[in-house]
Amino acid sequence: MVLLVIFGLVAICSAICVIAFKNPIHSALALILTFFSQAGLFIALGAHFVAAVQIIVYAGAIMVLFLFVIMLLNLGSLQDTVRQNVGAIKIFVFLLAALLVIEGITVARYVDQNGGVIKDQSLDVVIQRLKDDFKMSDEDIKSSVEKLYGEGTSISNLTSVQVIGLVHSEMGKTERIGTLLFSKFVLPFEVTSFILIAALIGVITIVNRDPQETA
Amino acid sequence: MVLSVLLFTIGVIGVLVRRNAIIIFMCIEIMLNAANLLFVAFSRELGDSSGQVIVFFVMTVAAAEVAIGLAIIVSVFKNHDTVNVDEIKSMKG
Amino acid sequence: MENLPLNLLLISSIIKILVIVHMLLIGVMGMIWAERRVSAWIQDRYGPNRVGPQGLLQPIADGIKFLLKEDLIPEHVDKIVYIIAPAIILIPALITCAVVPFGNEIPVSWGGQEYKIPLQIADIDIGILYILAITSLGVYGVVLGAWASNNKYSFLGGLRASAQMVSYELSLGLSIVGVLMLSESLRLREIVLAQSGFLHWNFLTHFPAFLVFTISVFAETNRLPFDLAEAEQELVGGYHTEYSSMKFAMYFMAEYMHMIVGSVVVVVLFLGGWYFPGLEKLVDSGTLIGGVLSFIIVFVKTAFFLFFFIWVRWSLPRFRYDQLMNLGWKVLLPIALTSIVVTAVVWLVSESRLWVGILNFISAVVVASVVTTLVSMRKKTKVVIEDDLDILSGESPSFMTR
User: Fold this and answer.
1) Looking at the domain assignment, is residue B90 inside a domain?
2) Which long-range contacts link A127-133 to residues 24+ away (Cβ below 8 Å)?
3) Contacts of C126 in chain A (CB under 8 A)
4) Mean pLDDT of the C338-360 span
5) Which residues from chain A sit within 8 angstroms of residue C124, using beta carbons?
6) Per-residue pLDDT tens for B2-60?
7) Which one, of A155, A183, A157, A178, lies nearest residue A167 by Cα?
8) Cα–Cα distance measured from residue A4 to residue B40, given in angstroms and rounded to the nearest whole number
9) Total-model pTM
C-alpha cells in the first residue's frame, strides 16, 4: 500500500512535468520517469511480468525512439508555444476531469462494496478457475500452496484471505500469463502480430517515400 | 483507480494544451498507460489474469502506433520544417 | 528459494549485496589493469608496470588522478541532464547483478538448524526479463550525456549509440528464447540447473544463438568492433567528449561493469554456469566446498570471457556504420529468429538435444549464407559504394574471424 502511494505520487508529478516542461527532451525524461513509476505500480499490484514488459517495451524501446526522433529533428531548439484559446480549454478540461474523477470514485466504491469476484466465491469455483485459465493440475496447485504458506498446508483449510493471496501470487507469474495468452487469447495474439507487420510495412513506406513526391 | 483517472486527465490536458506533435504523442502514451494501470488494478481486484494479458496487447499496439506516428512526424518535418500542429495546414486543403 | 527465517535472510542478503558490489568494483579495477596489460602483450610492448608489482596498483593511481582532477562543467551544456547522465549509465550496470547467480548454494547453520543460502541476491520469477529490461536502460546514459553536452561530435556519437543499441537489443532478446524454451524457466538459477552435464551446456545446443548473443553483448557494451559511438578517429571521444574527471570515470567504469555483467550472463545462460565436466556432483552436494567451488568455476569462466572481450578489442578493426546495421538487422536477427523456430519444432518432434543442436547449426549456416547472398546481390544492382573495405560479401557467416 505504501508502495502504491509513493509510486502513484511520482507518476502523477512526472506526468505533470511532461506537459509542463518547455524542452521536449526534458518532457521525454519525465515521461520515462512516469513509465518507471508505472512499472513500480504494476509490481506493487503483483503483476511482475507486465512490469518487466512495461520497462522493456516502453522505457527500452519506445522512449529511445522518441529521444532519437527528437534529437534527429533537433527539436530542442524550437520554441513550443501554448495554444491561444486557453480559456475555453481550461473549462472543458476542468469539467472532463471532474467527470472522470466522479466516475472513478463511483466505480471504485462499487467494486469495494461488491467485493471483487473471488471474495465471496466458494473454494471449488476458485480452484476450477485456476484449472481452467492456467491449465494447472492438482499437483501444481498443491505445490504453490505449500510454497506460499509452508509445508503441509492444503488448499482446503486456507482462510479466504489466504486464498485471495494465492490467486494473486499465481496471477503475476509469467508461466500463468503465458498459458492464458496461448490458450484463451490465441486469436488476439495472432491479430497483434498482423498489426505489428502492418505497422512495419507502413513505416517503411512512409519513410522511404521521396519528400519531393508529396510536397 | 483514482490515480489512473488522474493520469488520463493529465494526458488529455496535454493533448489539448501543447502544440508540439511529439509532446502530443507522449500524452497519448500517458493515456494508454493510465488505461493499462486500470486493467491491472481491475484484474487484481477481480482475480482474473485476463486484464494483464490485455495490457500486453495494448503495449504491442502502442509500440506499433508509436513507430508509425514517429515516422509520420519525421516525414512531416521533412516536408514542412515544423512539428507544430497549428502550422501544418495542408490537410485542410 | 527455501524459506529462510527473516533475520537470516536479511543478514545474508546484506552480506551478499556488499560482497557482490565490491567484487564488481574491484573487478572493474582488475579489468582496467588487465586491458592495458593484455593489449600491451598483444601489441608486443610492456604496458603499465611501474606502480606496484606488475603494475597492479595502476588502476588505483588512475582513480586517484580522476578524483583529484578539476570537475569541469562546460558553459553550453544542459546542466541537469549533463550531471545525471553518468549516474543513469552506472546504476543499471550495478543493479543488474542483483539477479545473477554467482554460484550454487552454501550451507549455513543458524539457530541450530542448517539452511542453504543461494549465492544470488534475489531469485525472482522474471529473472532474465529483469536483466533485459535493466540493460536496455544503459543507452539512456549515453544518449542523454551526448545530447546534454551540446557538442556536434558527442551528438553524433549519441545518435549512433541509440540506433545501434536498439537494433542489437532485438537479437539479444530473441537469441535467448531457445534457451528459455529448453530450460522451461525464466529464473537464472533454474536455467543453470538445467545445464548439469557438459552435453547439456546451452552453447552446444544453441550454438548460433550463442554467437548471436555474444556479438550482441559486444554491441551493447560498445566494445571495439562496435564502438562507433565513441570512435576516437572520427568523433574525438564520442558521447563523453565533454566529460572530465569523475564523471568521465563513471562512464568508463560503467563500460567495464557492463562487460563483467554481460560475461556473467553469457556464462550463466550458455556456458553451464557453475558446472564443470567431472565436478557436477561436488558442486551440487550442498557442502561448503561445493559452494565455494561453484563460485570459483563461475569466476574462472567469467574471467576467461572477459579476456576474450579484450582479445577481440585489440584484434579486430571497427565496423563501418552500414556494415553494423546490416549485420544486426540482416544477419543476426534472421539467425536468432530461425533458431527459435527450429528449436521449438525440433524439440516438439524429437525431444533430443542432439538434433536441436545439429539442426540449429545447419539452419543458421543456411540462413546466413542466403541472407548474405541476397544482400550482396542487391548491392550489385545499386550504385557501387566506393570504399576500401568490402561490404558484407557472401563468403561465410563467421564474422568473428574477420
Assistant:
1) no
2) A127/A155, A129/A167, A129/B47, A129/B48, A130/A167, A130/A170, A133/A176, A133/A179, A133/A180, A133/A184, A133/B48, A133/B49, A133/B50
3) 48-49, 51-52, 174
4) 80
5) 48
6) 555 565 666 566 565 555 667 777 878 887 887 788 788 777 767 677 778 888 888 88
7) A155
8) 13
9) 0.78
What is the pLDDT confidence band of residue A115, given thresholds at 50, 70 and 90? low
Residues 6+ apart with CB under 8 A from C268: C100, C101, C188, C191, C192, C298
- CA distance readout (Å), A84 to A80, B92, C156: 12, 20, 36
CATH value at residue B68: 1.10.287.3510
C-alpha cell of residue A127: 480452484
Nearest to C123 by CA among C181, C220, C193, C216: C193
Q: How many domains is chain B built from?
A: 1
pLDDT per position as a tens digit, C205-242: 788 888 888 888 888 877 767 776 666 666 656 666 66
Residue C38 distance to chain A (closest CA, Å): 34
ipTM topping 0.85: no
Measured between alpha carbons, how far is C147 from C158 in angstroms, rounded to an integer? 7
Q: Look at residue A149 in the predicted model and tell me its pLDDT.
A: 64
Q: Which of A1, A3, A16, A18 best probes binding to B when mutated, by most B CB atoms within 10 angstroms?
A: A18
Nearest to C170 by CA among C336, C21, C301, C34: C336
Nearest C-alpha of chain A: how many angstroms from C9?
A: 16
Contact in structure between C100 and C301 (CB atoms under 8 Å): no
Between CA A62 and CA A32 the distance in angstroms is: 10
Q: What is the pLDDT of residue A117?
A: 53
Residue ranges of domains in chain A, CATH in brackets: 1-76 (1.20.120.1200), 123-172 (no CATH)
- For residues A193 and C66, the model is more confident at A193
Give Cα separations from C366 to C208, C324, C375 (angstroms). 11, 21, 14
On whether the CB atoms of residues A128 and A167 are closer than 8 A, the answer is no
Q: Are A3 and A44 in contact (CB under 8 A)?
A: yes
**What's the distance, CA C377 to chain centroid?**
34
Contacts of C78 in chain A (CB under 8 A): 23, 25
Question: Which residues of chain A have a CB within 8 Å of the CB of C165?
Answer: 64
The backbone torsions φ and ψ at residue A121, rounded to the nearest 5 degrees and listed phi first, read -90, 155
Domain that holds residue B54: 2-84
- Which has the closest alpha carbon to C316: C39, C47, C34, C41? C39
CB B27, CB B15: distance < 8 Å: yes
Higher pLDDT, A89 or A14: A14
Question: 34-73 in B: which are within 8 Å (CB) of A?
Answer: 36-37, 40-50, 52-53, 55-57, 59-68, 70-73
Q: Are A71 and C143 in contact (CB under 8 A)?
A: yes
Most confident of A1-15, B50-64, C155-169: B50-64
**Facing residues of A190 across strands?**
none
Q: Number of helices (H) and strands (E), helices first, in chain A?
A: 11, 0
Backbone CA torsion sign across C33, C36, C41, C44: negative
Q: Which residue of A has its CA nearest to C124?
A: A48
